[in-house]
Amino acid sequence: MRAVQVTEHGGPEVLHTVDVADPEPGPEELLVGIAASGVNFIDTYQRGGIYQVSLPFTPGSEGAGTVLSVGSGVHGFEIGDRVAWAMVPGSYAERAVVPASKAVALPTTLGERTAAAAMLQGLTAHYLTASTHAVKPGTVALVHAAAGGMGLLLTQLITLRGGHVIATVSTPEKERLAREAGAEDVIRYTEQDVTSRVRELTGGVGVHVAYDGVGRDTFDASLASLRPRGTLALFGAASGPVPPVDPQRLNSAGSVFLTRPTLAHHMLDRAELDWRVGELFDLITRNELRIRIGGSYPLADAADAHEALEGRRTTGKVLLEP
Ligand SMILES: NC(=O)c1ccc[n+]([C@@H]2O[C@H](COP(=O)([O-])OP(=O)(O)OC[C@H]3O[C@@H](n4cnc5c(N)ncnc54)[C@H](OP(=O)(O)O)[C@@H]3O)[C@@H](O)[C@H]2O)c1
Fold first, then answer.
1. Where exactly are the structural domains of the chain?
2. Are 205 and 225 in contact (CB under 8 A)?
3. What is the CA 182 to chain-centroid distance, rounded?
4. Can you tell me which atom of ligand 1 is nearest the CA of 146?
5. Residue range 288-316: average pLDDT?
6. Residues of the signal sequence (predicted)?
7. In CATH, what class is 137-260?
């Protein structure tokens, strides 16, 4: 089969498409023919070596497709089933082995492209708004990079839960998308000062929660935008990692809470995965949550997909379609 391989850490140019042997499913695993793989920022951190992965490796940790064969001891899945997954390595390929424990069956009305686009970022937006900080009617939230893959999902979920979104974006087109997703206030953070604008918009009080996947460039503004006892959910580093933080800053900012959560700790068992996926797929199939696929590339153009994502040129989800 064809698969993308990284043999040395570096920029997008280290992503090469090569021929490799078809993987074999072991016990309690499925072999899946991949229809679409999601591209995520974590793939760029792994490619660049910010996150350690031993070389060589095939990037990609989510996708959707059709079961081609099943290993011993698999219950609940058979050949021909359509499935999706997140947090399984090796999805930039024509085929992947997926543990049955991480596979979810697709409802008949949900296409593979949409499912691949929804899994990792959708489950993340779910845990951030349901578990990290339970958004309820009246919650005021700051969402950075609101037209991105995570941003559009967070903005919609917060709005669906009755919250008020103050979004940040870099361009007029991204502002339009953030507003369409439900953001009531939008700050062009490349031109406006986020902290003072948030204070103005909230009558000087600040937000209950700041969702920050941008990291280094936005961290200080996120912290300074919280109301007393607010929460800063730092869930990524699109602009680079945040330098070490003195805990005393959390006191000065208003006895606030800082967390650096990750999806792996929010799908700890099958029941938790099924709960989050069930709510996510329900919202999508009822058309209440829209999945925007902003870009799609063949496997061989994975480098272009990474360049676009890191170059701030994408909106919504980026897919590879083998
Ligand atoms: N912790 C978790 O469980 C988890 C799971 C999924 C994703 N994430 C994180 O969520 C964040 C967003 O991921 P995504 O895949 O949805 O990406 P994305 O938001 O679609 O793309 C990143 C966006 O960040 C903004 N940005 C600001 N400064 C940037 C810079 N210097 N370089 C690149 N982008 C910059 C850009 O939007 P503007 O042009 O509007 O500024 C850009 O479009 C990432 O940090 C990722 O690691 C975390």
1. 2-120+291-320, 137-260
2. no
3. 18
4. 40
5. 98
6. none
7. alpha beta
* Cβ(312) – ligand 1 distance below 6 Å: yes
Between the CA of 265 and the centroid of ligand 1 the distance, in Å, is 20
**Third-level CATH fold of 2-120+291-320:** Quinone Oxidoreductase; Chain A, domain 1 (3.90.180)
Model confidence pLDDT, tens digit, residues 159-177 = 999 999 999 999 999 999 9
Length of the chain: 322
60 Cβ closer than 6 Å to some ligand 1 atom: no
CA of 66 from ligand 1 middle (Å) equals 29
- CA geometry: angle 134, 137, 143, nearest 5 deg: 60
Distance CA 98, CA 63 (A): 10
Q: Which two structure tokens, joined as six digits, stand for 207?
A: 């937000």
- The tokens describing 218, both together, are 């936005």
CA dist., res. 320 & res. 93, Å (int): 9
- The burial class, CB within 10 Å (0-12 / 13-18 / 19+), for 322 is buried
Cβ-contact 283, 289 below 8 angstroms: yes
Instruction: Express each pLDDT in 47-92 by its tens digit.
Output: 999 888 999 999 999 999 999 999 999 999 999 999 999 999 999 9
Write the pLDDT tens digit of every residue in 186-202. Answer: 999 999 999 999 999 99
Closest-lying ligand 1 atom to the alpha carbon of residue 236: 45
14 alpha carbon to ligand 1 midpoint, in Å? 21
Check: CB of residue 319 under 8 Å from CB of residue 296: yes
Average of per-residue pLDDT values in the chain: 98
Reading phi first (left if > 0) and then psi (alpha if -120 to 50, else beta), residue 206 is in: left
3-state secondary structure of 126: helix
Give the C-alpha distances (Å, rounded to integers) separating 298 from 54, 57, 58.
25, 19, 15
